[in-house]
Amino acid sequence: MSGYICEHCGMEDDLLPLGGGYDLAKEEDVPFLGKIPLDPGLARSCDEGRPLVEALQGSPLAKIIQQILLKILAQLNSDKQFGFADSDKLIEIGGDIDTILEE
Questions:
Q1: Does the keyword Iron apply (predicted)?
Q2: 79 φ, ψ (degrees, to nearest 5)
């Protein structure tokens, strides 16, 4: 959690001190994937049973989550990270995030 996105104006405000997640990732020697702000639309989409990237398509939060998903997919696809043989690659990165999420 990194802040709060106002659903009226789209402005993001910091609720907590910045850098804690980044510092922890660095300390634990793991990749820092990103900062996810609180968004009232998240609770609403969960209550409605709609996927966030569908309910808030094009929103700042959806874009942030898509970027984090791409980082995760890239990590999973990395032979060096997980030692998968070429034939065992989980996902080929490329194209549109919506296409990747549908697979």
A1: yes
A2: -60, -40
Buried b / exposed e along 53-90 (16+ C-beta atoms within 10 A): bebbeebebbebbbeebeeebeeebeeeeeeeeeeeee
Report the pLDDT averaged over residues 61-87. 73
Distant-in-sequence contacts of 92-98, Cβ < 8 A, 24+ apart: 97/53, 97/66, 97/69, 97/70, 98/53
Angle at 69 between CA 53 and CA 47, to 5 degrees: 35
**pTM of this structure:** 0.58
